[in-house]
Amino acid sequence: MVDDARTDTPAASGGRPGGAGLLGPVKRLHESRSSLLRWSVAGMLSTLVVGGVAAMDQRTQYTLDVDGSTVELVTFKSDVRTALEEAGYAVDDRDVVTAPGDSLDDGDTVTLRRARPVTVEVDGKSEEVWTTATTVADLISERGDIPPRSYVTPASTPRFRWTARPSPW
Questions:
Q1: Other Cβ atoms closer than 10 A to 39
Q2: How much is the pTM?
Q3: With bands split at pLDDT 50, 70 and 90, how would you rate the model's confidence at 123?
Q4: Do residues 110 and 98 touch, judged by C-beta distance below 8 A?
């Protein structure tokens, strides 16, 4: 019995060594009478297609808002904390993470408010506190220990000037 997949003769390959160029293997598969070979190739291609579809199903696109700056990200992670770590943000216990749930879905918005140390002086006593507040007024209302109508410096309306944390990379 002759195997039709072997067409290495000079006449069949057009005088080129190794078959009909790049499409030689495809031509040999097409001309083959072996049903086992055809079913094997069909099975491998089906596996690749199903695997690709499954991988794309795991892909999640979400919006990340870090201290007021937003960015669109794509991840294959389903957990919010793991996705944040993958994006390069180490989440501390003092940071505030707001998300629709513990798992990410397409189109979700995750908000990360990073805590920072601020020195507060109340009645002559200096104290360093960690806060996620973006204004002095937010810090005062967050603390709750500063009486209303107190003299506050700087004024309670300006936003804090945050310096960037060093990148974890």
A1: 10
A2: 0.55
A3: confident
A4: yes
